[in-house]
Each structure stands twice: as C-alpha cells, then as structure tokens.
C-alpha cells in the first residue's frame, strides 16, 4: 500500500466493500451479524441500504468506520479511495473518519454530548482535521449551521443540545458530518427517530449536505419510502446478507426477490389503489447458529425444499447489474406483492420472539 | 404457516410441494414457554460466581447453626487450654482464659446472620410499602414520604444506631429492629423507582384501560414485576446489615457479653492481633466471607432478574 | 439550580426538626444521667443530686426540655453537659474540626482512587485489570472498617519497626507535645493522619469505583461518544474530552449521598485509632447518657451534611448544563 492522501481521488469508485463479515461472540453463541456484504459506492451517488432491524445494515456501516466494539470479529475488505481500512490502525482511521467518511446516526437526542455547546461540537471536528484557529473554527461552525437551515445560527451555536428540538439536533449532526467536505456520508436511519413532519426536512438537509460537499452517500433505512426518490441504487439486506441489488428503479418496479416484494407490499402507496397493506408474516430469523438454507424461507410463500438446504447466492437476471439471491427469482418478476403474500396476510400472525436480534 | 396448496384462490405461482410434505427447518427464534421463576433460576445458575457463593454461604450457615450445636465446646466453656494456636482440638485456637474460639465464632456467626436476616426482612417490608405507596399515589404523599426517606438516608446511620442501640441492652432482635428502623429508607427509594417506572409501562395502561381495579393492578402487575428488584435489594441488605451489626457490636452498642457476635469478638480480641492472631483473624474472615458471598449472590440475582443485561462477553 | 437546592433544603428543615425530636426522646428516655452520681460511694448529699437534676433540666417535663433545647439552639446554647465543666458548643466544634480533617481528606483520596479504578476498569472492560479492580471492589465492600483499620494499625507498627523510627502514628490525632517548629508539627499531624485516612477512604473507594465503572461504561457506549469517534477524534481525545467529563457528573450525587456513611465510618476509625474527634465525642456522650452532647453532635453532623450537599449540588450545576438552565 502506498501512503497516499486519504481523500485523494483514485478512479470512479470511492468506497469498495468486499465480502465483509462481522461476528459477535455472545453467551448464547456466535452472532453472525453480517455474512458477506459486498458493494461499491461511486463518487457522488446515493446508495440506499434497506432492511429490517437485525439485518446487519447498521453493523455494516459501523464496520466500515471501524467503530464496532472490540469484541466484534471483522473480516473481508473495505477500501476507501483504494486504501484498505480494515488493516489500518486507529491513528490512520481517525484521519479518515469525519474527513473522508462521516456519519449521521439514528437518534439525534443522544448523538450530541449534553455538556458542550453545539458550536463547540461542530468546531471540534474542524479542529481535529484542520490546522485552524479556534475562532476560525467557530466562525465556520456558524456558517455550517446556516447551511443546514438553522435559524439564528450565531446564537444557536452557543446553545446546548437539550435546548434544541430533535429535528434541529439532527441538522447539527448533519452539519458535523459535512464540515470537512467528506467523500462519503453514511446516514444510518437518519429520520427514524423523528416526527414524520420533520423527516422530509432532514432528508432535504442531507441532500443539501451532499450537494455542497459533492459526497457520495449511503442512506440506511428500514423504510423504502425514505429511499424512494433519494437513492440511485438500492441494496436490500436480510439476515446479514444482501438479497437484492440494483438501480432504484429496478428494485422498486421489478423486484426479483420475494422479500423485496414483501417490503414493497407493506408500504402504503398513493399511485396504486390497494384495499389493504400486505404484511410479511413471521419475524426475522435468529442470527445465532443459523441453519443452512435461505434465511427467508420460513416466511416465504415460494419456499420449497431446496430453500431449506441451499442458500442462494446473488445472481444477475436479464440485467447483469440487477442481482438477487433467490432460487425462484424468475417467479417473482412481474407480480404484485398482494399476489404472493395475500394468503400469508389472511392468516393470524405467528407470535415470533425476537430476543436473539442484534440491537440496532 | 400459511397453507399455499390452495392454488385455485390466486394465479400466483405456488410452491409445488405443500408444507406437509416438507420437513421444515426450525429457523425462527423460538422460545419454549417458561415461567418467570424458571427463567430467573436458569440465568442464575449460569452465573458461576453466584452459584459458588451460594454453596459457600449455605456451608457457613450449616456450620454455624448445625455445627455450633454439635460442637463439643460451648461458648462459655472454659477448656483449660489457654492461648492455644489452632489445632484439631481447637480449630480456631483458644483465648487467654481458655474459651474455644471455634465455638465463639460459630455462635457469633449465628447471631450476626440472625440479626442481618431479620434486618433485611423488616427493612424490606417497611421500605417496600413506604416506597410503593409514594410511587403509586405520587403528589404530596410522594413528596412527604420521600423527603422523610431522603433525610434518613443522609444521616450517619451507624452513629444514630449507636444512640438508639444504647436502649437495646444487647437484645439481638431489638438490635435488628433499630438497624431496620434506619435502613428501610434504602429499600423505599428502590421500590418507589420500580413502581414509578412500571406505572408508565404499556401493560399497566392496558390493564387500566380494561377496567382493572387498583388492587388487581397492584397485586397482579406491580408486585410480580417489582419482586426482582425487591429480592435483589433484600439480599444486598443482608450484607450491609452484617457490616452494620458487627460495627455496632464493635463499638459496644450492639450485642453484649455474655452473648457474642462476630463484631464483638473482633473488638474483644483487637489487642491480640500480634500475639494471638487467630483470635482476631477468624471472626473477621467470617464477616468478610459472609458479606462477600452475599454480595456475589446479589449480583447474580440482579443479572438473573434483569433480562436487559448486556450479553456480549469477551 | 441554587433555588432548587434551597427549596429542597427548606422542605428538609421541618423534617429534620421532627427527627431531632425523635432522637431527643430516645436519648432522654434511654438512661438516667444521674446514674454516675448515684453510683459514687459514699453517696453525695441529696442536695448535690437535686442541684444536678435541676442543672440538667431533669425536673422539667420531657416536652418542655425539648422545646427549651430547640429554642436554645438558635441562641447558640447547646444545653448543659453531664460534665459540669464542659461547654458543649466549644467541645463539639473543636472535635468536629479534627473529624472534618479526616473525612475530607479521606473523601478526596477515595474519589481520586475510585475515578482512576473505575475509568481504567471501564476502558479495559473484561480485562485482567478490570477483574482485579472488580475483585478489590467487592472485597472492600465486604470488609468491616474496624477490622481493616486494626490491620492497618498492625501494618503501621511493622512499618515503623522496619524503618526503625516512628513515622506513622497509630494512636491519637496528634502528639501532645512536638519538639521543633511548625514544620515538625505538620509532619507530626500528617504522620497521625496517614493510616486513618487510608482506612476510611478504602471503604468509600470500593462503592465509588464500582459506580464510576458503570457510569463510564454507559458513557462509552453512548451515541455521542460514537459520534465523537466518527468525527475523527482519537480514542484518548474522546476519553478526555467526552467520556470522562460526562461520567463524572453522577459521581457528585453519589458522593453527597454517601456523606452519612463516611461520617459513620469516621466514628469507627476514630475509635480504632483513638482520636479525640467528633465520633469518639459522640460515643462518650452515649455512654454517659449525656443527652445534650448527643443532640449537639447530631445537629452539627446534619449541618455538615447539608452544607456539603449544597456544594455537591452547585458542582453538579457547573458540570451539567442541563441542570444549570433548568
């Protein structure tokens, strides 16, 4: 590896994740939180990662940042601008974090340190990565607050987090994320903890941040509605693995994996008249000591014997860029969610316990 | 599972083999139905230190109550062996006038454990009721009750116990009453906290919405859910009470001769620490062993009762 | 914040007065202060006994005695002692100064050790050093102060023998006569303080280090520490700037709450090391049924606790902006 500037441009791909696995040893057994995730993020694009809680989507991004607890066992490869991050030490990673790759977390109520003013907390990320004076950092912090549309930025910079609403605090976190003009912004469920009315504004602020910095963005969510209209490409995750990958249009309009179809069916839509939403019956599988086969098969209306024996790999369909992991992906194409999941919806929901889930 | 063999309902491509033909792999996280007590017991048994401590504590209790009764020497027997170091005849040695130290330590353990258990019992009953009432009714009742509890908590309780303990003339259960009369406040805070947090829980709301009476809510929902915290606290209180009683007896305001307690034994033998160390070390080690094992058991119980504990281990 | 503390204080005053009544009652009814006088042989003349009875207000009904005592407090009069030559006010104040020296120093030592042990334990969770500190914590939680203090006394004597000079003193709070100048006096006092301070500090250290570990762990697992790391701060920077600062906040509350048990611990420590402090003052008073001395000790202790609680509240306000603005 040649010692290069971490933010230097090396081709079109800014972040490349290959066969990433993450395991946590617990008292109950080995939790396989991420079981082989690969994706590449191109400069300036938005990649949406969708999945239920426990699907490993947040763990994936924390692994990229090198922020997993020490007990986690990580393998695979994460290359940022051609440079391997998984082998880097804390010192090198600290130079990448907040400057090359920055992050927005789920809960703005707890993301900011209660004992420092928000101005100080924005200035801090500037001071860590740049050789500037405190006054300059503070001035820049105020400008950043203005960029994310916080009214009276001059005064707000002197406020403590508890004096701001959740939406305002998330704007502050976004301001922190964009402060050093990063190449990648990872937004992990940035709107989940917020009121519906504020969600659109936060997505807008993220857009602003992305446009201002020219960064590529990974938008992680369990809500397909958040992805729609934001993401260029989408990756659907289930039980620690990508089960479908493609452009947003392909995944939304011609899904090839029953789980994706199920997710779409549980989403309210205005453009199509539906009598009722179709839920996916059952609960996500335990990721401890997983049996062989497709993890979705217990909930899948298409499941057959082979699904319990062999886990399908990601295979391209008619479009080589549109991958799906399903033995019967050809049977999914062209169907509405209700066709597949209707019977499931008419049955009473099985009471599945979710105790073994990895907390997101 | 949905029955998908009914293919005339929809034109969907259905599975070719019905679920009855397939041997399904159990993949979803299933939990066999267990009672709360079984779950707690199972988790407690996984806590090796706590289980080991429980065994040691039971052995100490058996030794004190059964062994003390069987042992050939009584507390006040003068054996004729003076200042003997530990031997088979006198496992813990003898003092200057010939008392068998083993018999004394066992008697002291009996008294100390007896007082501590009684303290935990009294304090738990009073404190739980006090705190539960405060938490359940809130408002000014809560304010007054908890200000009283707070005040008791801020006082130097051991010293106040010494003032009050002067009246007990060494009667062991009265000493327990005095200590419990001061330490209930700890329990009341915990009980109040539990009740307050439970009040806000959905299942209580649901029970209220369904028209359950106050009594039903208290006995069917609050009490079983608060039980864990109360048991854990009562356990820890036994350890605290052992230390308080022995300190009180050490200062001369707890158990008095001719009866004895582990604290009194240490007090009587403090000058012997360099000349006849066995007289000083054995009662002290018993205090530490009892308090230590009880604390470990309390720790194990806390983990067993609290399912939200972190499960990640190195 | 100050207003909140003062309001809390104001509610406590009536409750405290009520509790003094209870203690007064218990103390006054527990024994007869004249017993010692009556036990003298040959018995003193009845006039002497009667005079003593009047001097100690034993001729008044109990409620009147309490009322007179309470109102006397506001005039700075603590009431008559069994020891006719002793002025309770002067005696309890000078004794309490000795005790405060011990208590404050022990608290400081305990806090420093607890923060170090708690933080190291949390940062190196489940490591050998964490298990070691955890074990030490549990051990000291289970150790009676008096037993440990006696052990320390033994260790001090061995140390002196090894050095061949009396460096550490095991009896008393200071020497009656010290040759030399002011510096020798300071050395003498310090030599007397070492062992009792350690003995008293280790008791609180056990509980506080466990608490600090839990607080630190909570902060280390918090979202804002993760965000600080995501901002590019190094592990050490995050510890210093974010984790430690916030993890100290709850410790101030716990420290204030534990004041009572530290003062109790001081009573035991003073007994073992035979200090002329407030603790031994109290124990003497109890043994002599000296009701007014007992009450004086209680009032001064409560005052000390209240003042230190106020200090803790103010400190909390400085550390935590959420409280400051509330």
UniProtKB/TrEMBL annotation, chain A:
CDD domains reported for this sequence: ABC_NikE_OppD_transporters
Major site of localization recorded for this protein: membrane
Protein's membrane topology: Peripheral membrane protein
Family of the protein in this entry: Belongs to the ABC transporter superfamily.
Keyword Translocase assigned: no
Record-given protein name: ABC transporter ATP-binding protein
Domain ABC transporter, residue spans: 15-264
Annotated organism of origin: Prauserella endophytica
PROSITE patterns, per the entry: ABC_TRANSPORTER_1 (PS00211), ABC_TRANSPORTER_2 (PS50893)
Entry-linked InterPro entries: AAA+_ATPase, ABC_Ni/Peptide_Import, ABC_transporter-like_ATP-bd, ABC_transporter-like_CS, Oligopep_ABC_C, P-loop_NTPase
Keywords: ATP-binding, Cell membrane, Membrane, Nucleotide-binding, Transport
One Gene Ontology MF term: ATP binding
Domain of life of the organism encoding this protein: Bacteria
Places the protein is found: Cell membrane
Automatic annotation (TrEMBL), chain B:
Xref: SUPFAM superfamilies: MetI-like
Xref: CDD domains: TM_PBP2
Domain of life: Bacteria
Stretches assigned to the ABC transmembrane type-1 domain: 109-298
Segments of skewed composition (Basic and acidic residues): 18-27
InterPro entries per the UniProt record, alphabetical: BP-dependent_transpt_permease, MetI-like, MetI-like_sf, OppC_N
Membrane topology note: Multi-pass membrane protein
Keyword Metal-binding: no
Pfam family, one: BPD_transp_1
Ranges for region Disordered: 1-27
Biased composition (Polar residues): 1-17
Sequence intervals crossing the membrane: 49-71, 111-137, 144-164, 170-187, 226-244, 278-298
Record keywords: Cell inner membrane, Cell membrane, Membrane, Peptide transport, Protein transport, Transmembrane, Transmembrane helix, Transport
Compartment(s) where it occurs, according to its Swiss-Prot or TrEMBL record: Cell inner membrane; Cell membrane
UniProt-listed PANTHER family: OLIGOPEPTIDE TRANSPORT SYSTEM PERMEASE PROTEIN APPC, OLIGOPEPTIDE TRANSPORT SYSTEM PERMEASE PROTEIN OPPC
Annotated family: Belongs to the binding-protein-dependent transport system permease family. OppBC subfamily.
Protein name per UniProt: Oligopeptide transport system permease protein OppC
Taxonomy of the source species: Bacteria, Bacillati, Actinomycetota, Actinomycetes, Pseudonocardiales
From TrEMBL, chain C:
Keywords: Cell membrane, Membrane, Transmembrane, Transmembrane helix, Transport
Pfam families: BPD_transp_1, BPD_transp_1_N
Residues annotated as transmembrane: 9-29, 96-120, 132-152, 190-208, 243-268, 294-319
Localization annotation: Cell membrane
Keyword Magnesium: no
Superkingdom, natural source: Bacteria
ABC transmembrane type-1 domain location: 96-316
Topology of this chain in the membrane: Multi-pass membrane protein
Family, similarity comment: Belongs to the binding-protein-dependent transport system permease family.
Name this protein carries in UniProt: ABC transporter permease
């Amino acid at each position: 590896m040649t010692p290069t500037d971490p933010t230097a441009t090396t081709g079109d791909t800014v972040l490349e994740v290959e066969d990433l696995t993450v395991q946590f040893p617990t008292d109950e057994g080995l939790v396989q939180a991420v079981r082989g995730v690969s994706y590449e993020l191109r400069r300036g694009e938005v990649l949406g990662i969708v999945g239920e809680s426990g699907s490993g989507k947040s763990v994936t991004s924390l692994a990229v940042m090198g922020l997993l607890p020490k007990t986690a066992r990580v393998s695979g490869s994460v290359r940022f601008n051609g440079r391997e991050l998984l082998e880097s030490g804390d010192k090198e990673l600290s130079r990448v974090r907040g400057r090359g790759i920055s992050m927005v977390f789920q809960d703005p109520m707890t993301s900011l340190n209660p004992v420092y003013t928000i101005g100080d907390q924005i200035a801090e990320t500037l001071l860590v990565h740049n050789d500037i004076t405190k006054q300059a950092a503070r001035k820049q912090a105020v400008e950043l607050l203005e960029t994310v549309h916080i009214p009276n930025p001059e005064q707000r910079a002197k406020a403590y987090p508890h004096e701001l609403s959740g939406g305002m605090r998330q704007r502050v976190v976004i301001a922190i994320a964009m402060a050093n003009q990063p190449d990648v912004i990872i937004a992990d469920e940035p709107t989940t903890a917020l009121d519906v009315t504020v969600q659109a504004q936060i997505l807008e602020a993220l857009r602003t941040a992305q446009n201002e910095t020219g960064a590529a963005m990974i938008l992680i969510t369990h809500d397909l509605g958040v992805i729609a209209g934001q993401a260029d490409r989408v990756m659907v995750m289930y039980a620690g693995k990508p089960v479908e990958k493609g452009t947003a249009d392909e995944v939304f309009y011609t899904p090839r994996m029953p789980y994706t179809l199920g997710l779409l069916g549980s989403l309210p839509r205005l453009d199509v008249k539906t009598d009722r939403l179709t839920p996916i019956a059952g609960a996500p599988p335990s990721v401890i000591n997983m049996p062989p086969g497709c993890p979705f098969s217990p909930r899948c209306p298409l499941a057959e014997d082979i699904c319990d024996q062999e886990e399908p790999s990601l295979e391209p369909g008619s479009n080589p860029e549109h991958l799906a992991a399903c033995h019967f992906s050809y049977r999914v194409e062209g169907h509405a969610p209700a066709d597949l999941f209707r019977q499931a919806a008419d049955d009473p929901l099985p009471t599945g316990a979710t105790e073994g889930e990895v907390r997101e | 599972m949905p029955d998908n063999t009914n293919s005339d309902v929809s034109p969907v491509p259905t599975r070719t083999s019905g679920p009855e033909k397939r041997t399904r792999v159990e993949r979803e996280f299933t939990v066999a139905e267990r009672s709360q007590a079984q779950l707690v017991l199972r988790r407690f048994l996984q806590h090796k230190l706590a289980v080991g401590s429980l065994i040691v504590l039971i052995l100490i209790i058996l030794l004190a109550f059964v062994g003390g009764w069987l042992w050939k020497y009584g507390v006040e027997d003068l054996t004729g062996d003076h200042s003997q170091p530990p031997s088979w005849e006198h496992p813990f040695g003898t003092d200057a006038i010939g008392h068998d130290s083993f018999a004394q330590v066992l008697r002291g353990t009996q008294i100390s454990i007896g007082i501590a258990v009684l303290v935990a019992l009294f304090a738990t009953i009073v404190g739980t009721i006090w705190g539960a009432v405060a938490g359940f009714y809130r408002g000014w009742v809560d304010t007054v009750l908890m200000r009283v509890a707070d005040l008791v908590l801020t006082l130097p309780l051991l010293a106040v116990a010494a003032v009050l303990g002067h009246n007990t003339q060494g009667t062991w259960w009265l000493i327990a009453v005095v200590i419990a009369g001061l330490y209930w406040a700890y329990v009341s805070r915990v009980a109040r906290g539990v009740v307050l947090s439970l009040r806000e829980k959905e299942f209580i709301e649901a029970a209220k919405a369904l028209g359950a009476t106050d009594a039903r809510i208290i006995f069917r929902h609050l009490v079983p859910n608060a039980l864990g915290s109360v048991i854990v606290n009562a356990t820890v209180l036994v350890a605290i009470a052992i230390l308080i009683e022995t300190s009180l007896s050490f200062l001369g305001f707890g158990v008095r001769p001719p009866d004895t307690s582990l604290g009194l034994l240490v007090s009587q033998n403090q000058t012997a620490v360099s000349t006849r160390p066995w007289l000083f070390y054995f009662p002290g080690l018993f205090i530490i062993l009892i308090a230590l094992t009880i604390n470990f058991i309390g720790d194990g119980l806390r983990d067993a009762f609290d399912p939200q504990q972190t499960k990640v281990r190195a | 914040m100050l207003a909140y503390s003062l309001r809390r204080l104001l509610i406590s005053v009536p409750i405290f007065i009520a509790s003094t009544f209870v203690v007064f009652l218990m103390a006054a009814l527990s024994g007869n202060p004249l017993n010692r006088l009556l036990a003298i042989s040959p018995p003193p003349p009845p006039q002497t006994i009667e005079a003593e009875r009047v001097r100690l207000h034993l001729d008044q009904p109990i409620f009147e005695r309490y009322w007179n005592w309470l109102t006397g407090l506001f005039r700075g009069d603590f009431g008559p002692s069994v020891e006719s030559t002793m002025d309770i006010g002067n005696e309890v104040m000078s004794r309490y100064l000795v005790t405060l020296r011990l208590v404050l120093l022990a608290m400081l030592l305990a806090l420093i050790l607890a923060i170090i042990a708690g933080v190291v334990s949390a940062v190196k969770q489940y490591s050998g050093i964490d298990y070691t500190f955890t074990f030490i914590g549990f051990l000291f939680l289970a150790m009676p102060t008096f037993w440990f203090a006696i052990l320390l006394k033994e260790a001090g004597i061995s140390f002196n023998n090894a050095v061949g000079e009396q460096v550490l003193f095991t009896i008393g709070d200071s020497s009656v006569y010290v040759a030399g100048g002011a510096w020798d006096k300071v050395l003498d006092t310090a030599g007397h303080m070492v062992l009792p301070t350690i003995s008293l500090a280790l008791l609180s250290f056990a509980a506080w280090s466990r608490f600090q570990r839990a607080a630190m762990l909570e902060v280390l697992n918090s979202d804002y520490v993760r965000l600080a790391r995501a901002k590019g701060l190094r592990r050490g920077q995050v510890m210093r700037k974010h984790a430690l600062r916030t993890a100290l906040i709850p410790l101030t509350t716990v420290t204030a709450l534990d004041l009572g048990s530290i003062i109790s611990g001081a009573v035991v420590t003073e007994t073992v090391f035979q200090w002329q402090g407030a603790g031994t003052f109290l124990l003497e008073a109890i043994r002599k049924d000296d009701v007014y001395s007992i009450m004086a000790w209680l009032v001064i202790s409560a005052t000390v606790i209240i003042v230190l609680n106020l200090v803790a509240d103010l400190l909390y306000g400085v550390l935590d902006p959420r409280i400051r603005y509330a």
